[in-house]
């Protein structure tokens, strides 16, 4: 039996958390979702994970420490930088997009407020990152 995939969702909006969790339940891959609601909590959880998550879904606009800072810390940490990070945010700002890629985000996706479209986006993320892509072995 294949090992369950682990997704770390860093999102402060309760409604978005619920929708993303529901969308992930409707996908083919069995996965556990760990949630952090602000950037400081996210880094504390990440540094205590064993094993690390297979994928991080990161909102940019977070309280306490914003997603840009979290992304920079993840990609600067030799133990965390191999984890794929997908920015999933409402921002379509070109500066946010460029800054995220400058910080080595693996993918930048603007959230849709259209529920069927959001489910399609989450399904696409799950299919690509957890079924198609070859990821490094999780270590902690």
UniProtKB/TrEMBL annotation:
A matching Pfam family: Response_reg
Keywords, in A-Z order: Phosphoprotein
Modified residues (4-aspartylphosphate): 59
Cited PROSITE patterns: RESPONSE_REGULATORY (PS50110)
GO biological process entries: phosphorelay signal transduction system
Source organism superkingdom: Bacteria
Residue span, Response regulatory domain: 6-126
PANTHER family, alphabetized: RESPONSE REGULATOR RCP1 (PTHR44520:SF2), RESPONSE REGULATOR RCP1-RELATED (PTHR44520)
Protein name: Response regulator receiver protein
Organism: Leptolyngbya boryana NIES-2135
Lineage: Bacteria, Bacillati, Cyanobacteriota, Cyanophyceae, Leptolyngbyales
């Amino acid at each position: 039996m294949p090992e369950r995939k682990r997704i770390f969702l860093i999102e402060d909006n309760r409604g978005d958390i619920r929708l993303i969790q529901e969308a992930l339940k409707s996908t083919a891959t069995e996965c556990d979702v760990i949630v952090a609601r602000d950037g400081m909590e996210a880094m504390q959880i990440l540094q205590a994970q064993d094993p690390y998550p297979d994928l991080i879904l990161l909102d940019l606009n977070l309280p306490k420490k914003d997603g840009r800072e979290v992304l920079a810390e993840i990609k600067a940490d030799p133990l965390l930088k191999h984890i794929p990070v997908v920015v999933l945010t409402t921002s379509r700002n070109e500066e946010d997009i460029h800054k995220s890629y400058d910080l080595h985000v693996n993918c930048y996706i603007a959230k849709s407020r259209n529920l069927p479209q959001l489910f399609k986006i989450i399904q696409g993320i799950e299919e690509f990152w957890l079924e198609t892509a070859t990821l490094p072995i999780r270590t902690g």
